[in-house]
C-alpha cells in the first residue's frame, strides 16, 4: 500500500515541477509596448475615468446610507 503511494507522489512531483527541460527552446522575446501619445487615457489604479467615477459614486452612496442608519439607530432623527 505504501509503495504505490510513493510512486504516485514521485510522478505528481515531476508533473508539477517548474523545471524547464534542457531541450526546450527559449520563448521569443516580447515586443516593447508602444509609447503613449497623450495623458488623456491615463489609468489610475488600473481604472479609466468612468470606472473611477462609478466607484466614487458607489462609495458616496454607501456613506450616505450608513450615515442615515447611524442617525436612526442613535435616535438623532426619527422616521
The oligomeric state is single chain
Task: Write down the Rg.
Answer: 28 Å
Unreliable stretches, pLDDT < 50, 5 or more residues? none
Number of alpha- plus pi-helical segments: 2
Structural class: mainly alpha
Mean pLDDT: 78
Q: What's the order of the H and E elements?
A: HH
Strand content: under 5%
Distance between the termini: 71 Å
Q: Helical amount among residues, as a percent range?
A: 40-55%
Number of strands: 0
Descriptive report:
The protein is an all-alpha fold and 79 residues long. Helix content is 51%, strand content 0%. The chain contains two helices and no strands. It has helices at 2-16, 49-73.
Tell me briefly what this model is.
The protein is mainly α and 79 residues long. The protein has helices at 2-16, 49-73. It is elongated and about 75 Å long.
Q: Which keywords apply here?
A:
2 helices; mainly alpha; 51% helix; 79 residues
What is the element layout, followed by pairings?
Blueprint: H1 2-16, H2 49-73
Amino acid at each position: 500500500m505504501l509503495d504505490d503511494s510513493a510512486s504516485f507522489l514521485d510522478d505528481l512531483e515531476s508533473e508539477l515541477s517548474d523545471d524547464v527541460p534542457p531541450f526546450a527552446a527559449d520563448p521569443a522575446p516580447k515586443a516593447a509596448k508602444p509609447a503613449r501619445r497623450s495623458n488623456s487615457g491615463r489609468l489610475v489604479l488600473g481604472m479609466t475615468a468612468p470606472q473611477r467615477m462609478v466607484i466614487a459614486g458607489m462609495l458616496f452612496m454607501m456613506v450616505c446610507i450608513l450615515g442615515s442608519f447611524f442617525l436612526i439607530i442613535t435616535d438623532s432623527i426619527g422616521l
